[in-house]
Protein: F-box domain-containing protein
Amino acid sequence: MHANEPNLTEANSSLSSRQAAIPEDILVSEVLARLPVRSLLRFRSVCRSWRAAIDGDPRLVPRHLELSRGRAQASVLDVPCEPRLEDHWGEARSKEMEFRRIRHGAAVDAELMLAAASPANRSTAVIDPVHCDGMVLVPIASGELFVCNPATRELVALPPGSPSVMRGAVAFGFDPSSNTYKAARIFYRGVELVEADDDEGGEGVEEYDVGHEVLTLGAASSWEPTDDPPYYVAPIRPICTRGRPAADGAAASAEGLGLIGDRDTLTELGGRLCCAHARTATGVDIWLADDDGPRLEWSMAHRIELLRPVAHSVLPLAADGDELLLSVDRRVLYKYRAGSKAVEEVLDMQRVPDLYGGRPPLPLRLVHHAVPYVESLVSITRRNY
Structure:
């Protein structure tokens, strides 16, 4: 060896000693936790210790999620669906489920995170996906349920629940009492028309036999029945707020049904239950609920006038200071500034196929289900905490 050539053994030894000087907790909480999921999945091959930390260190998943929530640039997940006929959710021409991430700031960019063929190559119609901690619960019009983490490319079909004579509501969230993620499902065993008393001259009423069941992700292979709801629950989007057990999500949505109409939506906004109430053709009121007491207490937070009439619904996606991000009619993203009451169109998700990496133009009748999104390492099939 030439005298001036580096000694590779000594160099490697020096590098190893410098690596060994990094405390393991710092490596996990301040280095690995700040990397994108895509990089972490690649860096599993760097060495055994990194693989062990990424695959099994219990500190990494919650710390990575905490940092993802705190990042300045907000993200939205677009789950498109191409119905065969407008508002006909029983059929769809698409045989793929796609998950597209949209970042909006000074500029807008988007990426296709995952495109997965539907089971048995069947056409699917997606209905109101729900996001929680990087995972998305995707209900299908046929009654099937899927959970996807687009970042880790995990897509899991949930086991079938109890038979239902009509479409029920499905909630999805984190249950802090057990440190688990749960899906909660309303189903209908039957519907009976009860004839009115002729002497009273009233009309007949429908009585519903309603059931409720819960599935714990990563810990159970079947749905567990709970107490039946004492009332009819409309098949709308039920929401679980963090800090409230997931099993209560469907009941929590029913408590606010006085605000719910055909064009109204429920969601979670800033950790609180939120209702977007279509007051007029262009007017939308944003209500927030406090659930510290025995009953939900609603208060109106914003009164918004949109640029055009609402055909279907307005879904609040995110709040940042006095700014709200809204999805209107499952297609257009709007930003509302409470201080100036200004409404600005951020993105027409139908008209920007060039943002998705040169994929073919999207069909004009495509519906875009937008949900708020944070990237995470949370696993669908195993315990994370």
The chain has two domains: 8-67, 71-373. The longest strand covers residues 180-194. The radius of gyration is 24 Å. Helices lie at 8-20, 24-31, 37-43, 48-56, 60-70, 249-255.
